[in-house]
Amino acid sequence: MKIIVTGSKGQLGRSIQELSSGYTGLTFVFTDVEELDICDQHQVDTLFASEKPAVVVNCAAYTAVDKAEKEAALAEKINHHAVANLARACRKTGARLIHISTDYLFDGNKSTPYQENDIVRPRSVYGITKLEGETAILRTEIQSIIIRTSWLYSAYGNNFVKTMLRLGREKDQIGVVSDQVGTPTFAGDLAKVLLDILQMTAKDSKQFVPGIYHYSNEGVASWFDFTKAIFEYTPEINCKVNPLDTLAYPTPAVRPAYSVLNKSKIKATFGIRIPYWRDSLKLCLVKLSED
Q1: Catalytic site residue 215?
Q2: Contact criterion met (CB below 8 Å) for 256 and 123
Q3: Mean of pLDDT values over 171-192
Q4: For 145-160, what is each residue's pLDDT tens digit?
Q5: Bridge-partner residues for 58, per DSSP?
Q6: How would you classify the pairing of strands 240-244 and 173-177?
Q7: What's the CA gap between 147 and 266, in Å, rounded?
Q8: Catalytic member of 62, 114, 126, 153
Q9: φ, ψ dihedrals at 212, nearest 5°
Q10: How far is CA 26 from each of CA 30, 196, 254, rounded to the nearest angstrom?
Q11: What's the CATH class of domain 2-155+184-217+259-275?
Q12: Does the pLDDT at position 269 exceed 80?
């Protein structure tokens, strides 16, 4: 079974590449903007015609949440129109699509974990454009799996864990927001789920169950809790972490105050076990220390 992976140089794409050799019966075509500009329908159609993928995994996205407030047109181009290009190519060729979405679709006003059928009400340009991407896929009526995730980090690229490690080594104390609550998600864990779904599909196409799903690691944390854990597992860092209210740390984009995701559906449908966020954080920090 041939699979095209877009955004292969990002956190999730690189995590899929790292783990993919452990999966038999799957052939991957890893692309990033240099090999495939998904904003260009002709390029997308040409690659689909030559490679004839059975499944496309879209890891490409505009994810600079604050910059998106000023670069709304670019965010919409990548998160909406490019996704529509992929969905149209899938409809033409019969390929299936797995697309990665976000917890930023929710307004954060709940106090219990968000389910897939909860009302979406994004409060940022990033969230709005990601919702438009989801809508574009659903309109094409192709066989698609949309996975919303949250607070993604890894040993690759720029992310919260790597930023906190840098700040922790540079400063005696830092302030981190303590009233925004969600769940950190290790990209390696999400990559494994995607690969497991692909392998199930390769063995039996009925194992590909279309729909919207939520995936994050287990457990709940604030950004403050997350930072405290990062430093706790990095003994050489001796930096004090002070809790901040969101109002004390204004950002261009509004973040959901609460974006914990309910993972019951993905666990039941695909029979997966989800690691606890602290356990996965330890693994990532070990990986970073070895690099």
Answers
A1: no
A2: yes
A3: 97
A4: 999 999 999 999 999 9
A5: 6, 99
A6: parallel
A7: 9
A8: 126
A9: -100, 135
A10: 12, 11, 40
A11: alpha beta
A12: yes
State which amino acid sits at residue 112: T
Q: State how far the Cα of 258 lies from the Cα of 106, in Å rounded to an integer.
A: 9
Structure tokens at 230: 């990062």
Kindly write down the DSSP assignment for every residue of the chain, as one continuous string: -EEEEESTTSHHHHHHHHHHTT-TT-EEEE--TTT--TT-HHHHHHHHHHH--SEEEE------TTGGGT-HHHHHIIIIIHHHHHHHHHHHHT-EEEEEEEGGGS-S--SSPBPTTSPP---SHHHHHHHHHHHHHHHHT-SEEEEEE-SEE-SSSS-HHHHHHHHHHH-SEEEEE-S-EE--EEHHHHHHHHHHHHHHHHH-GGG---EEEE---BS-EEHHHHHHHHHHT-TT---EEEEE-GGGS--SSPPPSB--B--HHHHHHH-----BHHHHHHHHHHHHHH-
For residue 291, the model assigns a pLDDT of: 76
Q: Are 129 and 68 a contacting pair, CB within 8 Å?
A: yes
Cα three-residue angle 58-150-268, rounded to 5 degrees: 80
